[in-house]
From TrEMBL:
<dbReference type="InterPro" id="IPR014166">
    <property type="entry name" value="Tol-Pal_acyl-CoA_thioesterase"/>
</dbReference>
<dbReference type="GO" id="GO:0047617">
    <property type="term" value="F:fatty acyl-CoA hydrolase activity"/>
</dbReference>
<dbReference type="InterPro" id="IPR008272">
    <property type="entry name" value="HB-CoA_thioesterase_AS"/>
</dbReference>
<dbReference type="InterPro" id="IPR006684">
    <property type="entry name" value="YbgC/YbaW"/>
</dbReference>
<keyword id="KW-0378">Hydrolase</keyword>
<comment type="similarity">
    <text>Belongs to the 4-hydroxybenzoyl-CoA thioesterase family.</text>
</comment>
<dbReference type="InterPro" id="IPR050563">
    <property type="entry name" value="4-hydroxybenzoyl-CoA_TE"/>
</dbReference>
<protein>
    <submittedName>
        <fullName>Putative 4-hydroxybenzoyl-CoA thioesterase</fullName>
    </submittedName>
</protein>
<dbReference type="Pfam" id="PF13279">
    <property type="entry name" value="4HBT_2"/>
</dbReference>
<dbReference type="InterPro" id="IPR029069">
    <property type="entry name" value="HotDog_dom_sf"/>
</dbReference>
Length: 131
């Protein structure tokens, strides 16, 4: 499983009164990277929701802030699958700007959109994630 890198520029709106990225925004950046990686693989999450009736939801999240990002920095958000199971996947993610800024692990579960009960990740999606 190869790494996916998503670039993002920091704007004033991303920062707090200290001039660094507000901590909750890192969660958004990580989510965008996972979404864009799936999109790049050919997995359209809106289609999965509308046609297959399934969606991915975050079950568990761990984040370690090492260094702050600042206004106008260009960040590289790295995304990789650490574990893939029939119902869930665990992502290992990092945010870099020359140095490592953030480490994160995110466990995502595939669920039925109505019942929110776990369901098997479609085989074709699992195969794309393994390649």
């Amino acid at each position: 499983m190869n790494d996916f890198v998503f670039k993002i520029r920091i704007y004033y709106e991303d920062t707090d009164s200290a001039g660094v990225v507000y901590h909750a925004n890192y969660v958004k950046f990580l989510e965008r990277a996972r979404t864009e990686w799936l999109r790049a693989l050919g997995v359209d999450q809106k289609t999965l929701l509308d046609e297959a009736g399934i969606q991915f939801v975050v079950r568990q999240f761990s984040l370690r802030l090492r260094q702050p990002a600042r206004y106008d920095d260009e960040l590289s958000v790295v995304c990789r699958i650490a574990q893939l199971h029939p119902f869930r996947m665990r992502f290992a993610q990092q945010i870099w700007c020359g140095i490592l800024l953030v480490d994160a692990e995110v466990e995502v579960v595939c669920v039925n959109k109505v019942t929110f009960k776990p369901v098997t990740i479609p085989e074709w999606v699992q195969q794309l994630l393994k390649d």
